[in-house]
Amino acid sequence: MFLDFYRLREQPFGVTPDPRYLYFSPGHREALASLFYGIETGRGFLSLVAEPGMGKTTLLFQLLQRWKGYVHSAFLFQTQCDSRELIRYLLDDLGLKSDGEDIVRMHSELNEFLYRETKAGRRVVVFIDEAQNLSDTVLETVRLLSDFEAPDKKLLQIILAGQPELEERLSRPGLAQLRQRIAVQSRLEPLPASEVVRYVGHRLEVAGYQGNELFTSEAFALIAQRSRGIPRLINNICFNALSLGCARQERQIDADLVKEAARDLSIDAPFAQRTEQGRSLARPGRGLAPFARYTYGWLRDSLIRRRLFQTSAIVLLLSGMAIYVGARSGSGTLRQLSVRHPNSESTATAAFSSLTDVPSGTALRNSAGQEIPKNSPARNPAASYVYVIQPQDTLRDLCLSTLGRYDSAVLSKIRELNPGLKNPEHLHAGQEIRLPTSPTK
């Protein structure tokens, strides 16, 4: 093993979904905030879609850890099953006894359990991983679980997590009722090259590495290229590279070691290029002109995937106004008009930040009644988000898990975001605190 050779406390590139090693890329932060907000507001159905190896299961465990003590959860992995088996797996994971024969009786037991938990003030959340493997009949059974509700709230929260095939399945006409019930849709995208460097550095830091730069810049560039930004492939390449480096007594991993490690894993550049070319051929709009492709991509990401209906309405309204003014004032005036696209940030993240737009000139005040300066980060919801403190949370653990660091600069940033916070080191459950979305430089 290379742990002693590189002075590591533990394996930094393991295969188990350890929440401590979750790297909060911008995409992971947005997905976690969206799912957290969906559970908090009782939206019923939520979804998380990602390519294999993107860390969706790890993110779900992190989400579960944040709600620990406040929810009764069930985590279902057995997706190769029929409707009866799914209900039986659900009851077993919730700790309910069932003979697994009478599905009507199992539904009755589940309904009674949900009412008891609701009266006790606890939420019930069901995580279904690899949901793309569920048959249409079982997905319809999952939809019917949403019928467990009180007049004012949903008794059961369901998170469907799966690969991109899940999106394709849900787009079918036969599953329209289920798709319409999914209130929050999140997606994880591959990491860009700059995030690959931060990802590897984060895992090494959690594992206790304190030496010089372990990977050269050329090695990082090759890791990003061969892994295509997929965390699981990054882990495999780094593990093999460190193993080779230890065998050759190399204190630093260079591009040659990474290249050999990728070759041993059959991860070569031509294969990665062919895979990316195949995905490009399968994408709609490939043959369009650059401007048309940009417009198509914006509409797809902002309107279809994230369902920003307000955004579409605003764009159509502004476009109509521009055409009307142009018709009245002539083409010269029309050319002077410009339409500014609204912010494409997801509505879940904006709501999670708990800041709303106010009229110009209105003073914003913190919890202590003090006016927030105009240049304060607390006015910028994109730079921070509100987190509800859970039992046993500490500021150090929160910063390390979300930002990957905890130092005087981060602490200063938190004090700046929370002017009314007297002692950041003493937090209590239920308290709201604003955390930065990225480390302070």
What does this entry look like structurally?
By secondary structure, this protein is of the alpha/beta class. It has 4 domains: 19-188, Rossmann fold (3-Layer(aba) Sandwich), CATH 3.40.50; 193-277, Helicase, Ruva Protein, domain 3 (Orthogonal Bundle), CATH 1.10.8.60; 290-336; 353-436, Membrane-bound Lytic Murein Transglycosylase D, Chain A, CATH 3.10.350. 47% of the residues lie in helices and 10% in strands. It has helices at 26-40, 56-66, 83-93, 103-119, 136-144, 164-170, 176-181, 193-206, 217-227, 231-247, 255-264, 269-282, 290-305, 309-329, 331-336, 347-352, 395-402, 408-417, and strands at 45-50, 71-76, 123-128, 149-150, 153-154, 157-162, 182-188, 384-388, 432-436. The strands form 3 sheets. Strands 2-3-6-1-7 form a 5-stranded parallel sheet, with helices on both faces. α9 packs parallel to α11. The chain is globular. Mean pLDDT is 76; it is low at 270-309, 330-368 and 374-382.
